[in-house]
Amino acid sequence: MKLITSFLILALIVLLDVNSLKAVPPCDHLQTAKQRTDEPAPGALSVTASAIDTSLTIEAVWIGDPQWMSGVDNGFVAFGGSLAKGIDFFGSNIQPNQYVPVEIKFDTVSANWSLCQTFRRYGFNSAGVGTFPGSAWDISDSTNPRRLNLCYVEFDSIPTPDFKWNPDGSTKGKYEFLFVMNSDYDGTGTTYAGYNILLDDPDVLYAWWPKVAAGHTFFETDTAVLKITPRIGLSAYPFDSSIELTWVNPGADPDHFDIYFSTDSSADNFLAEVAGTERTYTHTGLILGQEYFYQIKSFDAADNEIYSSPIKSAKTREITISISFFGQWNQRSSYGGIWGYTDSVSGLEYALLCSRSQGLSIIDINSSPPIEVGFVSQGVYGVGTQEVRTYSHYAVVCMDGISSGIIDLTDVTNPQVISTIPNGQHTLQVYKDYALFAGGGSPIGLEIFDISDPENPTFVSSYDPYYYHDYAIRNDTLAAFAIYGQGIDILDISNIAFPDLIGHFNYPGSGSHNGVFSDDGCYLFVGDEIGQGKWTRVFDVSDLDSIAYVSDIIVDPNAIVHNCELKGNHLFIAHYIHGLRIWNVSDPPEPYEVAFYDTHPQPSTGYAGAWGVYPYFASGKIVVSDMQNGLFVFESTLLGGGCCIGRRGDFNGDGRTGADVLDLNYLVNDIFRGGAASPCASEADVNGDGNSSTVLDLNYLVNDIFRGGPDMPECH
Q1: Taking the domain 320-635, which CATH number applies?
Q2: DSSP state of 32
C-alpha cells in the first residue's frame, strides 16, 4: 500500500506540472512536441455527417454565337474553371444518382424569366426574391423537360443589390454566383427563403461563378443556352502488369457499361462489357512501363448511349515496396492536409482529411474501405481548408483567407464547430495549449493563440519579421521556415508571449517549406518546395552557433517535395507526384530509402499528388492525403506496426518512441483510475516482464524518465 501511495503522490505531481518534469535529451535545447491524443469529454454535437461521392465530373458548353458569357476561373472542372457540381462549390445534399443534364436558357422576354431566392455575398443568408433573365431545365427526358428552381448571390452593398442577376465583366463578375437547384420550379422564388446557402446544404445540382466574356456585353444576343452534362467519373490505378478502373455513374444504374482502351489517346478499342451495377474492372496482362488510355460508356437496354467518361490514362509501373495498401477513400475534392485522431473511449482510429474546396472529413480507417463518418463544411469557419491538427478531443483547422476553426470531435459522427479564430492562415502546429499559425496575410509570420479553453481561443503574441510558411517544434524551440529565401529562424518560445530569436541559418537557393526535428533534437530535416533543388536537406543543429548541412534526401532531382513527419528512425515524406516515401534516418548523415507507395501514378508533374502524411497511429497504420486521389491508408511490415517500435514506453500511442510524462500520466490513469487501456499492450509492459500496466512498470517508467535509470528493454 505504501508503494502505491508513493506512486500516486508522484503521479499527482506529474499531472499538476508535466512541463516541469522532462527527460533531458542529448541535445538539451530541444524536445519533441507532437500533438496529444484525445481525451473523452461529454457534449452533444450538431453538424450532419455526409458521405457523398463527388468523383463524377461534368462538362458545359455554350450554344449560340457569340459566347457573351464566360466565368471566373476558380479551379472548377467546367466552363473555364467556373462551373462545378454544387457539392464542390458550397455544398449540397445531391447524391450521384440525382445528377441530370441541364440547360440554362437565357431570354430577353420577361415572361420567360425565373423568380429566384437571392443570397447575400457575406454571410450567405437568403435576402428575398429576385429575377433571372431566363430559366433552367432538366432535360434527361427530352420529350418532357422539367423546369428547375434557380438561386443566386448578390454583393451586400457595393454595388447596391438590385435583385437582378446581371453579372458584369469585372475580374470577379460582381460575385453573382448562380445555383441550379434540383427542385421543381415554384413560380414564386420562395422555396429557399430562410436558408443559408453555405450551411444548410440544399439540393444544389450545379454552381456557376459567371462573368461577361471579354469584349462582349450582357445579353449581346436575345437568346442563348448553357448546356451542362454530367459524365461518368473514371479513375485508373496502375500496377506492374495491371490497371484497376473504378468509376461513379450519374443517374440510375444503366443496363450495362462498355469499356474501351488503347495505347494512344483515342481509347477506341473495345475491351469489355460489364453489368450496369458494376463499378470496378481490372485490365490484366499488361506491359510494364506502357501507358494505357481508357473510356467507359453507359447504355440502356436498347443499347442507346447514356453517359460517357472523359478519357483517363495510367502507365503500368512499380507502385510500391514494403508497404501494404489497406484502403482508399476519394469522395470529395481538391485535398490538402491530413492528421490522425484516436477516440480514447472506443480506441477507434480516424483520419482527419482537409478538402480544400469543401471542409473537413472525419474518416473511419478501422476497416477497408474507409468510411466518412463525419463532415464539417468549411462555410462554417472560412474558405480554403488547408491543414488540421488535434488538441485533446478537438480538431484545429486553418483556412486560407478568412478564419480558422476549432471542432469538437467527442462524437465523430456529429462534429461541431465550437469557436473560430479570426485569421486566415496557410499552416498550423499545436504546441502545449497553443495553436501556432503561419502563412497568413497579416501577420505573415508567427501568430499564436491560447486554445486551453477551446470555446474561447485568445490571441497571445506574434513574431513577424517576414513570411513563414510552417514550423518544426521541439520542447520550447521552434524552427520557422521562411520559404522565400530568408532561410530558417530558430526561436525560443519558452515565454510564449515573447518569442525570442536564438539562431538563424540559410543556404544557397533556399526555399524551406516544412520540416521536423530528429527525436534526439540534434538534426533538422527540411523540405524545400521552391528554390534551387526541391528536395529534403538534413542539418546538424546540435550547436546553434555552428549549424552544418550534412546530407540530402533526393527521390527525384526534378520532383518537388512537400510535407514530412518523423516516427522513430523513419522519415515519412509526402512527395507530391512520387507519393509516400519512407527513409531510414537512424544515421542522419547517411539516410537511405526503405519503402514507398506511389499514390499518384497518373502522368503529371509539379504540384499534384501526396500533400501530407500521418504515421503516428498506435495500430501502425499510415494515412496519406493525395491532392487529386484522396485518402490512402497503408500498413507496413517493414516498420513492424505501431506497437513497440524501438524502445517500449509509448503507452499513450502518440507515436513517440520511448517514454515521456504523457505516457506516465496515461499509465497512472490506467492503473489507478480505470482510464483507457494502452492501444498496445506490449508498450505497457514497460519493464519487459510479460505483465502489462502494473506498479512495477510504473516504477520502471519513473526511473527511466526522472532518475536516469535503465532504458526500457527492446521490443521483439
Answers
A1: 2.130.10.10
A2: B
The predicted structure's pLDDT at residue 33:
31
Residue 66 has pLDDT above 60, yes or no: yes
Overall average pLDDT of the 68-84 stretch: 91
Query: What's the CA gap between 34 and 432, in Å, rounded?
Result: 9
Residue 89's pLDDT is what?
A: 84
Q: Give per-residue pLDDT as tens, 434-457.
A: 999 997 766 678 999 999 999 999
Per-residue pLDDT of 493-518, as tens digits, reads 999 999 999 999 999 999 999 999 99
DSSP letter for each residue of 432-472: TTEEEEES-SSS-SEEEEE-SSTTS-EEEEEE-SS---EEE
pLDDT at 650: 53
Domain boundaries, the chain: 2-43+644-706, 57-230, 320-635
Vertex 118 angle, CA 113 and 119, to 5° = 155
Do 349 and 638 touch, CB atoms closer than 8 A? no
Question: In this model, does residue 575 exceed pLDDT 90?
Answer: yes
Over the stretch 171-194, which tens digit does the pLDDT of each residue have? Answer: 889 999 999 999 999 999 999 999
**At residue 643, does pLDDT exceed 70?**
no
Cα Rg for the chain, rounded, in angstroms? 27
Cis peptide leading into residue 159 (ω within 30°): yes
Q: Residue 21: pLDDT above 50?
A: no
C-alpha closest to that of 195 among 179, 211, 208: 179
Classify residue 557 by burial, with Cβ atoms within 10 Å: 0-12, 13-18, 19+. Answer: exposed
* Per-residue three-class SS string for 219-265: CCCCEEEEEEEEECEEEEEECCCCEEEEEECCCCCCCEEEEEEECCC
Percent of residues in the chain assigned helix, strand, coil, to nearest 5: 10, 40, 50
CA distance 116 to 188: 7
Q: Where are the alpha helices (DSSP H) in 478-549?
A: none
Whose CA is closest to 482, among 473, 464, 493, 469?
Answer: 469
The HSE-up count of residue 465 (CA atoms within 13 Å, CB side) is 15
Please provide the distance, in angstroms rounded to a whole number, between the alpha carbons at the two ends of the chain: 33
Query: With 80 as the cut, is the pLDDT of residue 80 above it?
Result: yes
β-strands 269-275, 305-308 pairing: unpaired
The pLDDT-based confidence of 197 (bands split at 50, 70, 90) is: confident
Q: How crowded is the C-beta side of 125, counted as CA atoms within 13 Å?
A: 4
Classify residue 441 by burial, with Cβ atoms within 10 Å: 0-12, 13-18, 19+.
Answer: exposed
Q: For 167-323, where are the E strands, in sequence order? A: 178-184, 204-208, 210-212, 223-231, 233-238, 243-248, 256-262, 269-275, 280-283, 291-299, 305-308, 312-315, 320-321
Is residue 8's pLDDT more than 80?
Answer: no
Instruction: Report CA-CA distances (Å) from 684 to 8, 586, 651, 677, 680.
Output: 18, 24, 5, 9, 7
For 133-188, strand residue ranges (E) read: 134-138, 146-154, 178-184
- Map residue 699 onto helix, strand or coil: helix
